[in-house]
Design brief:
There is one protein chain. The chain has 114 residues and is an alpha/beta fold. It has two helices and four strands; from the N terminus they run αββββα. The longest helix is centred in the C-terminal third of the chain and has 19 residues. The radius of gyration is 15 Å and the shape is globular. The N and C termini lie far apart (40 Å).
């Protein structure tokens, strides 16, 4: 990530390169980049269903995966989602929206396995 100017950084309470948060009992890994491996080997971070979500940006995927990195997005897990504004009508999304999107992606992936 490029160095953030002090004037911009002062607008935030905290700036991190990456972090893990818990929302409604769900572990969510936040990073600018999508990762194909994350959370493995750390049993303390899994929830009862064993799923660990990741919110990311960077790829500028746009709705329906039409952006520059679209061809590589096929390798993502259904528990990952591009929360970048260009993928979400140029606005942030709520936890409820994020959780709904992930739930739908998981359901679709289960259907594709059967």
């Amino acid at each position: 990530m490029r160095a953030m100017s002090q004037s911009v950084a002062s607008l935030f309470d905290y700036v991190a390169q990456q972090m893990r948060i818990t929302v409604d009992g769900r572990c969510v890994y936040l990073n600018h980049f999508p990762f194909l491996t994350y959370a493995h080997g750390d049993p303390e971070i899994y929830t009862d269903d064993g799923l660990f979500y990741q919110a990311f940006g960077h790829v500028h995927s746009r709705p329906n995966n039409t952006g520059y990195d679209a061809r590589r997005l096929q390798y993502l897990y259904p528990t990952q989602y591009d929360v970048g504004v260009d993928n979400n009508n140029y606005a942030p999304i709520s936890w409820k929206e994020f959780n709904t999107i992930i739930s739908k992606q998981i359901e679709i992936s289960k259907q594709n396995v059967d």
